[in-house]
């Protein structure tokens, strides 16, 4: 068995050795991929909503008239959010409890962004609000756990545990 493939026979996933800890490139790649997937699913949700007659008109600021979201917005917002989350994840790489920090901070940020569709003025239909909330949940579900897993692989205890397993074989 090759040393690089010890995880194939593992019942549970194990972190890579410290020398293979994720860096900027890994995080930005993962953020781009998860952001694009979240954008794809959000676009599918948006398209389905439009087919069902959901207007997707929102108020972007105080004292502004409602505007219809363009079809590209459900793709752009998750991608930009994922890239920003990937950059923010860099701050905790290699620290203890990195996985939990990314997961909980990501959940709190996601909950705070839910306020935008939920707190729309009365002229914005609830159908639009609900469909937007679903898009937020999908984006969180695809982006945050993946970035948290990558951050968790960089935790000192995870890397040390992996190195001990490599040396004991």
Secondary structure layout plus pairing:
Elements: H1 24-51, E1 57-58, E2 67-68, H2 73-89, H3 98-118, H4 126-153, H5 156-168
Antiparallel strand pairs: 1-2
Helix pairs in contact: 1-2, 1-4, 2-4, 3-4
What do these coordinates show?
The structure is a single chain. This protein is mainly α and 169 residues long. It has one domain (24-168). Helices cover 63% and strands 2% of the residues. The chain is built from five helices and two strands. It has helices at residues 24-51, 73-89, 98-118, 126-153, 156-168; strands at residues 57-58, 67-68. The chain has a two-stranded antiparallel sheet. α1 packs antiparallel against α2 (73-89), α2 runs parallel beside α4 (126-153) and α3 (98-118) packs antiparallel against α4. The longest helix is centred in the first third of the chain and has 28 residues, at 24-51. The protein is elongated and about 55 Å long. The N and C termini lie close together (11 Å). The model has no long low-confidence stretch (mean pLDDT 86).
Q: What would you report as the Rg, rounded to the nearest angstrom?
A: 20 Å
Main beta-sheet strand count, sense and barrel state: 2 strands, antiparallel
Share of β-strand residues = under 5%
Which percent range fits the helix content?
55-70%
- How is the largest sheet built, in terms of strand order? 1-2
User: Helix count, per DSSP?
Assistant: 5
Mean pLDDT: 86
Distance between the termini: 11 Å
Rough outline: elongated
Low-pLDDT runs: none
SSE sequence, one letter per element: HEEHHHH
Structural class designation? mainly alpha
The domain tally reads 1
Number of strands: 2
